[in-house]
Design goal:
Radius of gyration: 25 Å
Shape: elongated
Strand order of the largest sheet: 1-2
Number of helices: 3
């Protein structure tokens, strides 16, 4: 076997082992420091999977595009009247959880 063939043959298993080692290190570090946030290895696993599955690339692109969209909780609600000439602004109170909308 040629050197290049050997490197290319072992690149996928070596990178998989590297991802597992990095994931274990990251989990141990988060438990010790109590940190929160998105793990870096999750991004690497998603990109690694996207190499072999084209549908994963589509899913990641869709997730990125939807994260840029504005999430408006009151979309479609009737606006409350604000009478700024008299200095009156009405605030909408949040509904309690489990309250059925009439």
């Amino acid at each position: 076997m040629d050197t290049l063939e050997t490197v290319l043959t072992l690149s996928v298993p070596a990178s998989s082992i590297g991802l597992v080692v990095a994931g274990v290190y990251e989990l141990r570090r988060q438990r010790r420091k109590g940190g929160t946030g998105a793990p870096v290895t999750a991004t690497y696993v998603n990109e690694f999977t996207a190499i072999f599955y084209g549908s994963k690339r589509t899913q990641l692109d869709h997730r990125d595009s939807t994260s840029l969209l504005r999430d408006d909780q009151h979309q479609g609600d009737k606006p409350w009247p604000d009478d700024l000439t008299q200095g009156i602004v009405l605030e909408r109170r949040p509904r309690p959880p489990g309250d059925a909308q009439a």
